Amino acid sequence: MGALISLVAVAAIVLLASVGASTGDGLRFVFGVILPGVAFAVFLGGIIFRVVHWAKSPVPFRIPTTTGQAKSLPWIHNNELEAPSGLPGVIGRMALEVLAFRSLFRNTRVEILPEKSKVNYIADKALWAAAMAFHWAMFIIVLRHFRFFVEPVPAWVEMLQSVDGFFQIGLPVYYGTTFLMVVGLAYLLARRFFDSKVRYISLPTDYFALYLLLGIALTGIVMRHIEKIDVVQVKAAIVGWASFQPAVPVGVGLWYFVHVTLVSALLIYFPFSKLLHAPGVFLSPTRNLANNNRVRRHINPWNPDIQGHSYAEWEDEFRDKLKASGYALEKE
Amino acid sequence: MLDREIEKHRGEILERWIDGVMKGYPEETAKFLRNQSDRFANPVGASLREGLSELLDGVFRGVEPDELTSALDRVIRVRAVQEFSPSAAVGFVFDLKDLLREVAKGPGADASGSLDALDDRIERLGLHAFDVYMSCREQMWSIRMQEIRNQSLGILERMQEWREKRAENPEHAPRP
Amino acid sequence: MAEKSPQELIQIDLTPPPRKWMNPAVDFEARRGTWSYPGGVKSLDYLGMPNVREWSPTDADWKLPENWQQIIHDGFKDLLKKYRTLEIFMDICVRCGACADKCHFFIGSGDPKNMPVLRAELLRSIYRKDFTAAGKILGSLAGARELTEEVLKEWYYYFFQCTECRRCSVYCPYGIDTAEITMMARELMNLVGLNINWIMEPVANCKRTGNHLGIQPHTYKDNVEFMCDELEDVTGIKLDPPINRKGAEILFVIPSADYFADPGTYTFVGYLMLFEHIGLDYTLSSYASDGGNFGLFNTAENMKKLNWKIYHEAKRLGVKWILGGECGHMWRVMHQYMDTMNGPADFLEVPRSPITGTVFENTTSTKMTHICEFTSDLIKHNKLKLDKSRNDQFRVTFHDSCNPARAMGFLEEPRYVIENVCNHFYEMPENTIREHTFCCAGGAGLGNDENMEMRMRGGLPRGNAVRWVRDHHGVNRLTCICAIDRATLPPLVEYWSPGVDVSGIHELVGNALIMEGEKERTTDIRGVPVQPEKGEQDDV
């Protein structure tokens, strides 16, 4: 049900963009210039607002989840990446988490080979692989898009393209990342449909984000490989937009507007949704703090000024019993 | 012999039996129970699979229910603490009767005699399943009683004796 | 077939109608054995808790204060201002499902709402409705729900079905920690007077007497003397541990179950034997008579209050540093909360072993060292006379307690001690130990008898792994470094893996220690005759 509602929502966006693009220059200006501008502003502003808001809220306790041996006695080998004792370890741990999805990688499955009476551990890593494929591919694709924003095209973008385009199957060059992104997204979506456990926990918004991303990827593919749109015109439109000299994009075709509108929708949606996991992961206190609790005192800014039940009160209450059992007392 | 005819379908019968039992769980759980093959990550699924497999063989071979206690226990021990009514917790045994009938419906098999014999075994197994279920429940209650007792008495009883001894024996008088 | 056979009827009876998780409904009457009794009025009044009343989860009317929704809304707002964890964990979950099958309660019960992600969604759905634009506008499409009485009842059911073990947070790509979420939910419920007696009575006891069990100082002394007398029968040595002694070098803090309930008592005498053996200058305290802290399972405020006595007593007695016994949640508090809440402990010195001279560099601020750190250092420096063979009747495995494993990174120290005091040590399967360890299902205040069915369900993954080493290596002793474990694992193994006993590590240390002037040991320190080792079982 939720899957359907979200599909309808994304379809509506596509329809809106198509209608807008084919109506006339006025709406083309709205969808090709104003909407992306607004979307970009909302995206940037929204994320900054969120992150600043998070960063301002206090971290009263230092509560890292340790996933390996902590630093203790000098002869016990500690695992800095799993239970960091200081900043370098934390940086390493966060890097692994953000770049390699370390925690998702932790899934293991045991297989027992009865004939050998042996226990084997198998990586159960489909989710990890799909997540890696999708996120990395998307990241590289976003970087590749820089070629539309600046003139001349920076050398690092050229290089990225040539590495990515290594998987050449005819012309124009097919990028490996395109394939990875679609496959990754398809798997993530399929899980929500077919893994009843994941289906049960999925909200309409979970499908929405996936549909949007898939829509963006597919319209991109259509433009590049099917419609083979005029890249020069596209670049002219985008460079103009990026240098604050916007004009109604010409000669770029319908799909361009659909693509740009979907991207705009994603950008607007981002700061109000779970997509915030991207900046959020950096601020997660169970991962980004060192496990050096007993070495450095962590300060709680709102530490309430309260005391417990004092020894004096305790002694007063049990004075007779304490005396009878021969305890030494503070006050006789 | 029909027995042998049916035994040929052992694999199918077992899978359908397991499936039927797993259907007793919420859908999103059943999938996990069925697919997670790691016996440590999925002990419920593993004990169902192993227990039912042993029980099925036992029924085919005409093993006395008593000797299948441990296999029954593997399955029922789990269900005895899960959210099942007693009838639901042991009802899976009787599922087998219908399953065998459906399989026996196959080509040219009129085998009511044989099926009756199997039915009889299954029914006796079902009755024994109640015994196993009750023993699990009783054990849980006794564990619970034991825990209440330990919490309130346990060491206190031992200490009481010790105090009495100390009172009688000046050597053990409380030290200042 | 037109008619339904009885078997089919059972099937239909069993299969729940497909229901989205957002519809709350818990039938407490039908689910007896899976929830805990509410906090008793006497304890709550003593603690000055809000909205105290007599009520039962099985009542239709929970006698909530009239403006309970407002109270929770305001409380939620307040917590969001105080805890970045809450904000982040509410905002960033993508429902990837990595945690779904990691919770011992889900694995053992099959109840989908025991998936950590859904446990958190119970709270998150209210957060969306009350505090996010998307939730306010889109409602259930964005996963938002109204806070109704039914939802609150569901909170009570499921947030007292989480043992705060943090296993799910190990697998979460964003480190979302359900323990933290459960703590927040419990804070909120507490505002409208929903809490459980197994937590509140210990908290009240602990405030008054210094320990959860409510043991008063004269009984404390009796208990200690009694255990020493029993030990004398075994070793021929009479110990006389100092209590509340000013000027001692070290204050030794333990969980109260260690001097009140078996098998913790044997761990306790193990500590005492160790201290006698090395001639340690220490003292026990009948005021700081519990390092454990059920405030952790109730509110941050109560946790701070109960923990406050530790430094207070250390200061009064004038000790140099603090040593802590084997306890899981106590060590979560000592490691991650104590210094922040009640420090700085600038009146203490950095812990230094008087026997080996080792300075415990990892405790320079808190000034509190774990007994396993202390003992493994002693063993490393050859300061203990140990006869491992005295533990030969035991085939030992080790259960990593949740808090030391996942909140301290405390994995190797206990293993080092075990390996040096016994000859037969076998690990349970890899994905059930260390940071992957399965909970005893009785932590965070859930180890009460009325909750026994749920404990057995949640205990299945642990019990199953114990059973594996029992069957494959003949394991008969399950060791742990947690007082809650020592109380909750015995019933767990009795049900799932009979024939295995539970003990702390320092019980094994006590067995192995060759004490000066001791008589020949014919029994272990439990008084159980030492059996000659049976033929080696084949290891597989």
Note down, in words, how this protein is organized:
The complex is a heterotrimer of chains A (about 325), B (about 180) and C (about 550). By secondary structure, chain A is mainly α. Chain A contains 12 helices and 2 strands. Chain A has a two-stranded antiparallel ribbon with strand order 1-2. In chain A, a hairpin with a 4-residue loop joins strand 1 and strand 2. In chain A, helix 4 (about 125-145) packs across helix 6 and helix 8 packs antiparallel against helix 10. Chain A is elongated, with a radius of gyration of 28 Å. Chain A starts with a helix and ends in an 8-residue tail after the last helix. With about 180 residues, chain B is mainly α. Chain B has one domain. Chain B is built from 8 helices and no strands. The mean pLDDT of chain B is about 85. With about 550 residues, chain C is mainly α. Chain C has 2 domains: about 20-195, no CATH class; about 200-510, no CATH class. In chain C, the strands form 2 sheets. A 4-stranded parallel sheet of chain C has the order 2-1-3-4. Chain C has a 3-stranded parallel sheet with strand order 5-6-7. In chain C, helix 3 (about 70-80) crosses helix 4 (about 85-90), helix 3 (about 70-80) packs across helix 10 and helix 13 crosses helix 21 (about 505-510). Residues about 5-20 and about 535-540 of chain C have low confidence and may be disordered. Classes of the chains: A mainly alpha (about 325), B mainly alpha (about 180), C mainly alpha (about 550). Chains in contact: A-B, A-C, B-C.
Offer a few descriptive terms.
heterotrimer, A: 332 residues, mainly alpha, Fumarate Reductase Cytochrome B subunit, two-stranded antiparallel sheet, elongated, C: 540 residues, 2 domains, four-stranded parallel beta sheet, three-stranded parallel beta sheet, 7 strands, globular, disordered C terminus
Going across the biggest sheet of chain A, name each strand in turn: 1-2
Largest sheet of chain B: none
Instruction: Name the beta content range of chain B.
Output: under 5%
Count the beta strands of chain B. 0
Mean pLDDT of chain B: 84
The percent of residues in helical segments of chain B reads over 70%
Largest interface: A-C, 98 and 104 residues
Let me know the largest β-sheet of chain A. 2 strands, antiparallel
**Share of residues in strands of chain A:** under 5%
Task: Note poorly predicted spans of chain A.
Answer: none
Q: What's the Cα radius of gyration of chain B?
A: 24 Å
Multimeric status of the protein:
heterotrimer
CATH fold field value of chain A: Fumarate Reductase Cytochrome B subunit
What is the highest CATH level, the class of chain A? Answer: Mainly Alpha
The structural class of chain A is: mainly alpha
Helix percentage range of chain A: 55-70%
Can you write the helix and strand succession of chain A as a string? HHHEEHHHHHHHHH
Q: Label the overall shape of chain A.
A: elongated
Say which CATH homologous superfamily of chain A is assigned.
Answer: Transmembrane di-heme cytochromes, Chain C
Query: Number of folding domains of chain B?
Result: 1
